[in-house]
Amino acid sequence: MSLNALDGPRIKQLSNAGAPYETIRLDKLTPVIGAEISGVDLGRPIARPQMEEIHRALAENLVIFFRDQQMTQEQHLDFGRHFGPLHLHPAAPHEPGHPELMIIKADANSVRANGEGWHSDVSCDEEPPMGSILYIKECPPNGGDTLFASMYAAYEALSDRMKAYLEGLTALHDGEPVYRGMFAKDGVADKANYPRAEHPVIRTHPVTGRKALYVNRGFTARILGIPRDESEGILRYLYEHMENPLFQCRFRWQPNSVAFWDNRCAQHRAMWDYWPHRRYGNRVTVRGERPV
Ligand code: SIN
Fold this sequence. Notes:
With 292 residues, the chain is an alpha+beta fold. It is built from seven helices and 16 strands.
């Protein structure tokens, strides 16, 4: 079963938006973004009604969290496959024998940690991932939170004049400056080329139909079709605007927590404030569609 394509049941499911949940318990972190879900065991087969409610919870809350989960690597991969085919990261290290199981790790020997700046995962791909499912198994004694921000809220808070200005503009997203050399210390050799793609600055979410800002500090190189200095000024403004704490939630990890975020409408930023301690887990990333 794939819940990634826009199909009949999906539309029906969305018509249920805002209805009470029957198979899961949901506690919102903020009115804008983030919800913790309980009553689900991700290590066991999940019946379709519960899977559909998990998907609706993601659509309504942009990022959902699960605590105290025990999943094998296979179960983590299987959970991701319920939402669509899995994505292969163009650069990051993965678990042996599992190219779809990205390693998220920082410890005393690290010179960087994954996701330290605001970004939407691999937005430099022609078809960037729809979602990412991060399972953190080892946490530092404190710190190592992840921040998430709603790009719907950021878009909706723009003035009508700014919305009109941005409508129809596209931006170049480039993986080269991000990925080249980034994983050398993890023993990953550079590739000849990294992905780059042009995407609309405002995208419409294929499931909810809502508009979201789709530029990010990590990958967006410039807005196309306007002078370079104008692009720099507009992007600087948009980045400051979208980083307003009003659009955010912050997740405090415990060992065996899972976060599942929707890259089409949310950005995230991982806090590396715990050196020299260790934080370790795996990310399964679900393929997405070309943004429109
Ligand atoms: C990432 O960008 O996938 C890393 C997020 C995190 O480590 O919290």
